[in-house]
Specification:
Structural class: alpha/beta
Number of helices: 7
Order of helices and strands: EHEHHEHHEHEH
Strand order of the largest sheet: 2-3-1-4-5
Number of domains: 1
Radius of gyration: 15 Å
Number of strands: 5
Length: 180
């Protein structure tokens, strides 16, 4: 178990595009009567008049962490974040083929108490910001490898609608019980 920030359990949703992370984060926040941190990259990229560059990815995840740090004071026992720096590291590497030291440091300094790894076993939904419908299984394996490499606590979330939310709730309730 990681040291809690402000006595708040931090849960990150991680996984490939179009695997229900945003929907699940919002549903979990409603169920646990707390706040969630939307994915800042959507706002940032929507305001660009070009494709994102490596420096944009770093800015996005710095701002993502700032927003989370602002919202944590409004959380009740648990906070959910729609994305985190492992997502940024994988995106950066996919875009450049290179390693990003600043994102790596952010991962080390901001690990979460639980990661919910969303499996790409639901239908792809087109969105102008999504680029890789054919790479979802590949990215799922990359995310899983990163979590395993870092020995981070995670639960794979799969199935249809109710199965996903029920599996996530069960994992979070178990985590909350384990910390008292």
């Amino acid at each position: 178990m990681n040291k809690l920030k402000n006595n708040i359990v931090r849960v990150a949703l991680i996984g490939p595009e179009s695997t229900g992370k945003s929907t699940l984060a919002e549903q979990l926040a409603v169920y646990f009567k707390t706040v969630w941190v939307p994915e800042y990259s959507r706002t940032y990229i929507s305001n660009l008049n070009r494709k994102p560059e490596p420096t944009d990815i770093i800015k996005i995840y710095q701002k993502q962490m700032e927003i989370e740090n602002e919202l944590i004071s409004k959380a009740d026992k648990v906070i959910f974040t729609d994305t985190e720096c492992i997502n940024g590291l994988i995106w950066y590497h996919h875009l450049t083929g290179e390693f990003c030291e600043s994102l790596e440091k952010s991962i080390i300094n901001n690990s979460y108490d639980l990661y919910l790894l969303t499996k790409p076993d639901i239908e792809w939904h087109h969105d102008p910001l999504r680029e890789h419908p054919h790479l979802r299984e590949y990215f799922f394996s990359v995310y899983k490898a990163q979590l395993n490499k870092r020995s981070l606590e995670y639960v794979t979330i799969s199935g249809r609608d109710e199965q996903r939310i029920d599996g996530a709730i069960q994992a979070i309730e178990q985590l909350l019980k384990s910390i008292g």
